[in-house]
Design brief:
This protein is 33% helix and 26% strand. It is built from twelve helices and 19 strands. A seven-stranded antiparallel β-sheet has the order 7-8-9-13-12-11-10, with helices on both faces. It has a four-stranded parallel β-sheet with strand order 4-3-5-6. A hairpin with a 3-residue loop joins strand 7 and strand 8. Helix 2 packs across helix 6 and helix 9 packs across helix 10. The radius of gyration is 22 Å and the shape is globular.
């Protein structure tokens, strides 16, 4: 009952959470580190009361008091997506969680994952996102946001609340699956201060706008989410949507935990309410490796040492970690009959700085055939498609461990996956 009331008071909870948060992410790193340590201690105590985590603590021979800092989290085993999925399914079925949120997301694997969180945790996650926008310069109270319709929204609902009709926290939803003309018209009619869409939708609209000479309203800030924004995409987005691109990184499970504001070359960790570590293959702290996230505000349904599936490079200064480069998906690979693979990281350098290609996706249909969907950067490229195919094929074969045939399909824009994202490598070999 209490949780149901909390759910109906989401805006109030959001404001209360936002008031408790430091709005200046990265302004005082020592202070943030102190808060982080305090929140870690609190989280460990709460987690040990939960059977799922008590078992993980005990099996690792770890007492909650042993974990005092983010660096100490290495003492616990990483949490995989499959482990989280099984546990969340169990928790979602419990009657005591009836008034809680159960959001379903689908990652690169395409297998749905239900994330259970209390109304309090949901409010804190939303408050943190508003704080990200405020760090970028957006005013969430008086500004106008345009965002996408997602899987959890009622597409036929009138989204205006009482507060929004008074001019506060204004938000308009756009059907990101509509035609390019529809989406552009919606943006140009609403004049949003903040535009928030999937990366693939920004790409689709940007390509259409540039190719057809249609101007798009420049929001004060815009945030492509769901995928890394590489140099080619960044240049195109800034040409079409303006300079103020906000890079925020996280997931539906954890919320936004990293932020890169316009003009910065690296991501700042939200150290006060997140612990973000980089682990190597032996699950030890490293400067480069897999991203492991622990949202510290999630004390009702914790997610500790979560392996999100991406790899990154980082640096550590005075105990504070900065992410210098998010490299991409760990599990995106080409497979061969003998069990060997060619990874995402071996392929991506070949196209990262390629001025001829603005979008690309590899679909491995069999051990011998890779279907390549590609979008030529018609503004910057001076080569024919045949020349690009020949050059790329030669480069690809140099990193492939066994010969394969590359079959090219040239497109105006590559459609996203069903989850709204665009994976670079899709392997259809089971």
């Amino acid at each position: 009952m209490f949780e149901e009331i909390q759910k109906k008071m989401m805006n109030v909870n959001l404001f209360l959470a936002l008031m408790q948060m430091d709005k200046k992410i990265g302004a005082d790193l020592k202070k943030e580190k102190q808060k982080q340590n305090a929140h870690i201690n609190q989280l460990m105590k709460k987690a040990y009361e939960i059977p799922f985590y008590r078992k993980r603590f005990d099996q690792a021979g770890v007492n909650p008091k042993d974990i005092k800092t983010s660096e100490d989290l290495v003492k616990l085993p990483p949490l995989t997506k499959d482990e989280l999925r099984v546990w969340m399914e169990e928790e979602a079925a419990k009657p005591e969680h009836k008034g809680w949120y159960a959001d379903t997301t689908s990652g690169s694997s395409g297998i749905p994952l239900t994330v259970v969180m209390s109304p309090k945790e949901k409010a804190w996650m939303m408050a943190n996102w508003f704080r990200v926008l405020m760090k970028a310069g957006y005013n969430p109270v008086f500004g106008k946001m345009m965002t996408r319709i997602n899987a959890h929204e009622d597409k036929h609902k009138d989204y205006d609340t009482f507060l929004q009709r008074l001019g506060f926290m204004r938000r308009k939803y756009v059907n990101q699956f509509g035609s390019e003309e529809e989406v552009i018209k919606a943006i140009n009619d609403y004049h949003p201060d903040m535009l928030y869409l999937n990366h693939s939708e920004f790409m689709r609209i940007a390509l259409y706008s540039r190719d057809h000479g249609i101007k798009v309203w420049h929001p004060k800030f815009y945030a492509p989410v769901g995928e890394k924004t590489d140099d080619a995409a960044r240049a195109l987005f800034m040409e079409v949507f303006g300079e103020n691109l906000v890079d925020s990184y996280g997931s539906a499970e954890t919320g936004a935990c990293l932020l890169r504001v316009p003009g910065s070359d690296e991501y700042v960790v939200h150290n006060d309410y997140y612990a973000v570590n980089i682990y190597d293959e032996q699950n030890q702290l490293a400067k480069e490796g897999k991203i492991v996230i622990t949202p510290l505000f999630k004390t009702d349904m914790p997610i500790i040492n979560y392996v999100i599936g991406d790899s990154a490079e980082s640096r550590v200064e005075d105990g504070i970690r900065f992410i210098t480069n998010i490299k991409g998906r760990i599990n995106d690979v080409f497979k061969y009959r003998d069990g060997t693979v060619t990874t995402f990281f071996e392929v991506t350098p070949l196209i990262t700085h390629n001025r001829d290609i603005i979008q690309i996706r590899f679909i491995q249909e069999s051990y011998d055939l890779v279907h390549v969907q590609a979008v030529q950067d018609r503004e910057k490229s001076i080569k024919s498609k045949e020349e690009i195919e020949k050059e790329l094929t030669e480069k690809f074969l140099e990193v492939m461990k066994h010969p394969v045939k590359f079959e090219f399909e040239w497109m105006n824009a590559i459609p996203p996956d069903p989850n709204g994202k665009l994976r670079m490598i899709v392997c259809n070999i089971k």
